[in-house]
Specification:
- The structure is a homodimer of 242-residue chains.
- The first copy, chain A, has 242 residues and is α+β, with helices and mostly antiparallel strands.
- The first copy, chain A, has a domain at 33-41 and 75-232: Apoptosis, Tumor Necrosis Factor Receptor Associated Protein 2, Chain A, CATH 2.60.210.10.
- Chain A has helices at 2-28, 48-58, 96-104, 166-169, 198-204, 212-218; strands at residues 34-38, 41-42, 78-79, 90-91, 108-110, 113-118, 127-135, 138-150, 153-162, 172-180, 183-189, 192-193, 208-211, 224-232.
- In chain A, the strands form 3 sheets. In chain A, strands 2, 5, 7, 8, 9, 12 and 13 form a 7-stranded mixed beta sheet that branches. In chain A, strands 1-6-14-10-11 form a 5-stranded mixed beta sheet. In chain A, strands 3-4 form a two-stranded antiparallel sheet.
- The first copy, chain A, is globular, with a radius of gyration of 19 Å.
- At the A-B interface, α1, β10, β11, β13 and α6 of A face α1, β10, β11, β13 and α6 of B.
- Chains A, B: Belongs to the SINA (Seven in absentia) family.
- Chains A, B: This is E3 ubiquitin-protein ligase.
- Chains A, B: One of its GO terms (biological process) is protein ubiquitination.
């Protein structure tokens, strides 16, 4: 009996996900975009020391943030950039993607324009929604984080990081777009390199920031659909055009 | 001597304003937009009771928020909608604009697309930057407010209100755009009617919200340039298009 109840629950969950997927698709599918349902993950550990070291190294736009660590011998190695865990892994920048996929089970999506559908927005902070996005010959890490910068007042922060160096990141522009209830919010910026810690980007507030009330206005049945587009940054060279 | 010192100060101020105007124009002038320098004003009084009454009345989409006040006899009268002062004035909706211009010295600008250049963003909260905008046969009130929703953490809130009824407001879409340092933030929404109190719109967070750090990224030498465009809301009927 318990087995059948669980099966029924699982079927209901599937129907619910399918329904959310359909609703997001209805809003965003005009351009034939891929909708990806992303479930939340609680941040297990926050490692400020690693981030500080990583950030210091990127000022010189060189690879090895890890040479600040005593244990690292090869200056070509970078630490694991997964914002969820304080992971002891270190490796070359070229294998960060496969580490994130295999060890941290972060999905990767293809396509210049996708829809990131974050579920269960009501979950308490700190919570992260993470996905990798492959396009224009590079891989990007999209992080949506619910965090209490001011105690008792959670906010949502969304940013895109290039899995590459800061100088490579300067060649791209990413756009995050929310569109619901006759409201539209767009954020466009140059992605940061994952060598600059995602925690620093969020604490600097240099990303899309949503108060809870605004997040609720844009979310539908507890899920937030974010349209994502990446382009090469030629269009950004002139700030004059509106 | 004092006179000459003051004159010199005034000339310096004029040069500074001219310089800010020029810089904003350089960023936004591709479309030949009008740049308007808006100085801040400290909110002198906050009148929550009037706002609550006004908001209650607009749920029925009728004009007279004031019929909740004991002193009002004519149901066609509306209270002064200036968010800066608790003004005892009451009059018909059609003369609100002339009251705001004459009594509260709020400037009015013509044109479908203008640039609102708010100066002295560093001033402590609460501070308002206010202007009226005339286009498409209607007048709109643009309010940028610096307010501490969470003590010690000022934020900026920007919204556009139609000087008209809620049903008239539904015919329009307004867009606020910030564009600087390879970052762009756009907010599009249906304007609210001034019969719905601006304080409620801001406390609901249903507007463009900027943390101080983001406002600093977009501001230049203490001034924030906001591109404003108003269109009829046909384009909003389909949320499908990205």
């Amino acid at each position: 009996m318990l087995f059948f109840t669980q099966c029924f629950g699982a079927v209901l969950d599937l129907i619910h996900l399918r329904f959310q997927h359909y609703k997001a698709k209805r809003v965003f599918s005009a351009a034939g975009q891929l909708v990806c349902v992303v479930n939340p993950t609680h941040s297990l550990k926050y490692a400020p020391t690693r981030c500080a070291a990583a950030q210091a190294s990127t000022e010189q736009d060189i690879l090895p943030p890890c040479h600040h660590h005593e244990a690292v011998h090869d200056p070509q190695l970078v630490p694991c950039t997964c914002p969820l865990f304080s992971c002891p892994w270190e490796g070359h920048l070229e294998v960060v993607v496969s580490h994130l996929r295999q060890t941290h089970r972060i999905n990767i999506l293809q396509g210049a324009e996708i829809v990131f559908l974050a579920t269960d927005m009501h979950l308490p902070a700190p919570t992260d929604w993470i996905i990798m996005h492959s396009c224009l010959g590079h891989q990007f890490l999209l992080v949506l984080r619910k965090q209490e910068k001011y105690e008792g007042h959670p906010q949502f922060f969304a940013t895109m990081m290039l899995i590459g160096t800061p100088s490579q990141a300067n060649n791209f522009t990413y756009r995050l777009e929310l569109n619901r209830n006759q409201r539209r919010l767009k954020w466009e910026a140059t992605p940061r390199s994952i060598l600059e810690c995602v925690d620093s980007v969020i604490s600097d507030g240099d990303c899309l920031v949503l108060n809870t009330s605004l997040a609720q206005l844009f979310s539908d049945n507890g899920s937030l659909a974010i349209g994502i587009a990446i382009t090469t940054s030629k269009a950004h060279s002139s700030e004059a055009e509106m």
